[in-house]
Structures are given as C-alpha cells and as structure tokens.
Amino acid sequence: LTSLVYFQSHASPSSERREHLYKILVIGELGTGKTSIIKRYVHQFFSQHYRATIGVDFALKVLNWDSNTIIRLQLWDIAGQERFGNMTRVYYKEAVGAFIVFDVSRVATFDAVVKWKNDLDAKVQLPDGSPIPCILLANKCDQSKEGIVNSQAKMEEYCREKGFAGWFETSAKENINIEEAARSLVNKILLNDKLLQSNDNRDGDKFALDHKIANGENSRDGSTKSCSC
Question: Which family does it belong to (predicted)?
Fold first, then answer.
C-alpha cells in the first residue's frame, strides 16, 4: 500500500505526528461531475462552467485526521474519454483508493460503471493482490433520477455484487455527501494500511524465528535439538 509516513525528528514518542500520502483516483464517464466533486471537496467551490478534463488533472487535500495524524490525499481527476486507454494503467499506478462517478440523470453513465470497475481491478491491486477500495458516487442527486438508483435496496445489491466498498448519493452543486464519501474511503484505506503493517510485522517475526532456529538458537541454553523422525 503506497503510504509515505514521516515522523518529526524532535518529537517525543507521545507527541510524534504521522503523515500519510495517499493517491486516490476519480474516474467515470465524461460529464458525470468528477471535476466538480473534487473542486467542492478541496476548495469548497462549485461552478456550472468547467471545461472537460483532458488527460488527467490533480488536486491535493490535507486532512488533520486526528491529533497525531495528517493525511494528504492526491486526487487524480481522470478524463472520461480516457476510458480503457493504454494510459490508464500509468494513471492508476500506486493508487490505494478510488471513486467511480456516474450521473443519476443519465442511465448510460451508470451502465458504464461496471466497465470502469473491471478496468480498475485489472490494472491496480493492493500488495496482497486484492482490489483497492472503491466507492460508487451517484452524482447530481439534486436532479431527477433514472434507473436502479431510485431503489436503495437494488443499489446495495449491485455494490455487493460488483465489489464496491460502498456508495453515496452526492451533489457537488448542493454539497451533499461529498465529505462523507471521502471520509468513508479514507477510513477503508487506513484499515488496509493497518492490516498491511500487521502482516509485515508478523512476517518479520516469522523471519526472526526461522533465523534463530536455523542458527541453533531455539533452546534456552543455546543448544540445538534434532529429531530423526
């Protein structure tokens, strides 16, 4: 899991601050409001007049997560027309979380969600090979809705079947559920980070134990014991 962790060199153990840098992808069809969501989240700003993103754009969000943790989110705004192109593998590299966005008023953008999810899962994984956490955003919920997004139960079932970590109805215009969706994704990223660190510690303990056994250090008096069975 890509996480840069820094410690203040002058800090005591009780006051050390941890900083994490996480790369998050924001993907989906053209015109679903990806850029608007990022602008609302990062700058608390909304405009009706964004030009279509060409290629990829970036934004940085700094979160004072708790008294000892600063999280920097590097948000990658990937153009809708980049779908399944050769460059998406480069764009996706080292990402640890993602949002897939569709427009609730255009059912065709929902139909494309599964293709984005499959492409994402094929091109980026966590170090253990599992998919990165991905949350589905049903954007523009201030407008009339088309399709199964009108049924919460069907949306829940869809997300379970397709492997989403959750879903939110959002509106960048009305500032609905943007912060909540982001916080949910960061929580899942942090959980994966802790699991990875725990696994690394267990692997380190196993290596140390194997090393001791190989060097005859497995008994208290330093002697080795063999078995002919």
Answer: Belongs to the small GTPase superfamily. Rab family.
In the chain the domains, ranked by start, together with CATH numbers, are 18-199 (3.40.50.300)
Instruction: Name the residue with tokens 């060409």.
Output: 54
The closest alpha carbon to 24, from 161, 112, 128, 137, belongs to 137
Integer angstrom CA distances of residue 211 from 30, 115, 198, 216, 217? 55, 47, 20, 9, 8
What pLDDT digit, counting tens, does each position of 123-176 carry?
999 988 999 999 999 999 999 999 999 999 999 999 999 999 999 999 999 999
The residue type at 69:
T
Check residue 203 and give its pLDDT: 52
